[in-house]
Structures are given as structure tokens and as C-alpha cells.
Design the sequence.
């Protein structure tokens, strides 16, 4: 198991319940792959450095987790196809 930091930006037009559903879906993908979530930080709505899909703001979510490297590729693929996620980054610690 390796430790990772996952940062993703969610579409700013989502309300709190829809944002929580996206976070819960990502958490489920991690736990289903026998990973562990150590900490979740929601930074809230912030201005983006440059427009992404014509959006100037986004909800930032940071997760500290540990999982197998093979499952990390599956997580990245799932995040790529999740529509409300504008950008994501998975960094090995």
C-alpha cells in the first residue's frame, strides 16, 4: 500500500448535497479497492488560475489515502469519466 494525495476540483454550480454525493462516490471507489482514507479536506469554492470548461471557480477537495498502485490507475480512470470533476491530480507521497 502506498500513500497518495488526491486533489480534485468539482463543478461550481453543484449544491452541497450534489457535492457530497461526488465525494461519497470517490470514497466508495477507494474503499472498494481496499484502500484507506486517512483525511478529507474540503477547501470550498475557490477561483481557478485559468478557465476550465468555461468555469472560473470550482470546489476543491483534498484526500489523503493509501491504496495499491494498481488500484490507483483504476481510480484515475473513474475520475476521468466522472462528469462534475473538472480536474484531478493523484500524487504519490
Sequence:
Amino acid at each position: 500500500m502506498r500513500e497518495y494525495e488526491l486533489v480534485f476540483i468539482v463543478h461550481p454550480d453543484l449544491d452541497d448535497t450534489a457535492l457530497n454525493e461526488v465525494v461519497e462516490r470517490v470514497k466508495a471507489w477507494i474503499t472498494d479497492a481496499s484502500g484507506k482514507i486517512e483525511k478529507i479536506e474540503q477547501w470550498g469554492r475557490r477561483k481557478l488560475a485559468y478557465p476550465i470548461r468555461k468555469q472560473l471557480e470550482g470546489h476543491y477537495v483534498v484526500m489523503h489515502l493509501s491504496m495499491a498502485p494498481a488500484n490507483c490507475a483504476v481510480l484515475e480512470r473513474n475520475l476521468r469519466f466522472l462528469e462534475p470533476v473538472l480536474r484531478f491530480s493523484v500524487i504519490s507521497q
Notes: The chain has one domain: 2-92.
